[in-house]
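Worked example 2:
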Amino acid sequence: MISRPILVPAMAVLGTLALALGARYGMVELEAVAHLCDSGEGPWWCRVRSGVIFAFTHHGLGVAALVLGLLATLLRGRGLALAAAMLGAAGLVLYNFDTSAVGLLLGVLVLADPSAAGPPQGGGSPLGGQRSVGADPPATQDDAGEGQA
């Protein structure tokens, strides 16, 4: 059975993918809708259609997914990773597949990492939970009693 921490982000990404598919095939590519909206006197959702077209024409979805994916990878943030995965999925469908694919991949990789659920444990760095090079190892009880004998 799929665990809930994986199921919720997966459903969010799939829901975004479904919305993007609906926008592409229901609003952007239909000739009748294009003619209705191009006349300038179309319904309110013609503005939504124009916004969707503007977003993929200027690579907005792909660049946003890539930036969020990079931030999620560096900061290990699950919210950033989910946003990157959702925008990446939408960008794959809405003509920004090159940068969207990278953003989607980075977001999914962070979501799949169990250590990305919260802040790093043990005083590690936020970039990966590892100590910096050259740092002294933490003292143990054996080390504390050596100089007293």
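The chain has one domain: 4-115. Residues 4-28 form the longest helix (25 residues).
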